[in-house]
Amino acid sequence: MTTELTTDRLLLRGWTEADREPFAALNADPAVMEHFPARMTRAESDGLIDRVSAGHAERGFGLWALEVRDTGRFIGFTGLAVPSFEAHFLPAVEIGWRLSKDAWGNGYATEAARAALAYGFGPAGLAEIVSFTATTNLPSQRVMQRIGMSHDEAGDFDHPRLEKGHRLERHVLYRITKAQWEADA
């Protein structure tokens, strides 16, 4: 069973069958997927839900489905993941989010990410959490900054799953330690 997290406005919860259709629509939206190499097919989107759910069962954390508490509306995900590629800063646990376009601009990503950090540094017992994105993804970088993460310029990297010269190849790396998080709390 997936641990649920709540904030003033949001519920971070396990995935349900009802999430599959809106999640597939989110993953097929060109605006949402602008900073990813490609939009996802329905099968790819469903596969991601299956992998995320398995990760929750294995590690006790993962990417939670994100729901607006007042309406019950599914708006995407936020949570913790273990990257599966090779890079100089790995192994590590990353924090990430992906929200439907109609949910942007409400502070939901920041609010949910703060709850995920609290879980990561609390019950999950993590010492550090990282985040990374393409250099062009300024909205996500702003969320990283708002939740207290610091840009590790020396850690910036070319994503190994992207071709040399791909428009999204260069990634920025952000970090936060448990001590930094506690000092800001």
TrEMBL record:
InterPro entries: Acyl_CoA_acyltransferase, GNAT_dom, N-acetyltransferase. One of its GO terms (molecular function) is acyltransferase activity, transferring groups other than amino-acyl groups. It comes from the Bacteria. Residues 10-179 form the N-acetyltransferase domain. The keyword NAD does not apply. PROSITE patterns: GNAT. Keywords: Transferase. SUPFAM superfamilies: Acyl-CoA N-acyltransferases (Nat). It holds the Pfam family Acetyltransf_3. This is RimJ/RimL family protein N-acetyltransferase. It comes from Kribbella amoyensis.
